[in-house]
Amino acid sequence: MLTNNCDINESEAAPIECARELMGTLPRLRRILLEFFPCVEGHLALTLPQFFALSCLYSGESLPSHLSRRLMVSKPTATVVVDGLVKRGLVERGAGPDDRRQVTLRLTPAGRRVCEAHRQAVEQRLCRAFAGLGTDELQRLLLALRDLQRVLQPDAQEKET
Fold it and tell me: What is the pTM assigned to this prediction?
């Protein structure tokens, strides 16, 4: 297990130990996220996959294939998630800018509002969880999370296989 100090020996820093720590953390993180689903006060109920899809589309429109890759799910699974969001008026499909046969996905104004409300609720809950950490611990955690995001990016995984 990781300790609160920086004195981690080589055996504790092995990839297998990192994997075990992450696997032990994921259920707790999932529980925290699920506290805000299926609803955030005054907004539509969302599933975690729907929230992640809205979050991916928050920065701009996307092709369905790109969304499935970012969500790390199959194209049919992403289609089911998007279909539910389209039916609820949170996402809209449109023609591609260069090829009308190409489909793009974008948030509607309602989708943007729902995404923002859910993001804010999750961020507030995580901030409460991190409030007990000191500045040095927060800095180490931030660096570790950035490293984790980098190594878990779909592009990084594809290069390894």
Answer: 0.73
